[in-house]
Recover the amino acids of this structure.
């Protein structure tokens, strides 16, 4: 919980279920995979706010010997589950959720889309997604 002057704001991001991301058939690579409601985001604030997302690095970190070292973070995108447009991850912060009013407790579910291509090897990869809450 962050308190600035008379305002209070906090951000809590969780993964509601243990979800393992696995691409096992050809169509998983061709069409990509969607994970509805992958993240649960709770914003507690008494002022208008914005939640930004960004990737910590431009590329995934390979965590197995066979993995490619050049798979971009941009294969991942997020959207609010009631929204229609996915926001592609990059190292630049991008607005994901915006509230122009003061609603003390707001809960959102985010859909995750992973759209790899045949340009990268199979293996285990790691990427951090940074969520930031700011007052408007």
């Amino acid at each position: 919980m962050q308190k600035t002057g008379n305002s209070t704001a906090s951000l809590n991001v969780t993964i509601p279920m243990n979800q393992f991301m696995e691409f096992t058939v050809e169509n998983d690579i061709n069409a990509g995979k969607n994970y509805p409601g992958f993240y649960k985001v709770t914003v507690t604030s008494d002022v208008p706010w914005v939640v930004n997302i960004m990737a910590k690095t431009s590329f995934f970190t390979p965590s197995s010997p066979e993995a490619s070292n050049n798979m971009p973070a941009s294969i991942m995108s997020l959207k609010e589950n009631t929204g229609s447009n996915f926001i592609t991850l990059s190292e630049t912060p991008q607005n994901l959720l915006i509230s122009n009013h003061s609603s003390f407790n707001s809960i959102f579910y985010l859909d995750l889309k992973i759209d790899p291509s045949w340009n990268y090897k199979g293996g285990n990869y790691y990427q951090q997604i940074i969520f930031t809450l700011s007052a408007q």
Q: What stands out?
A: The chain has a mean pLDDT of 86.
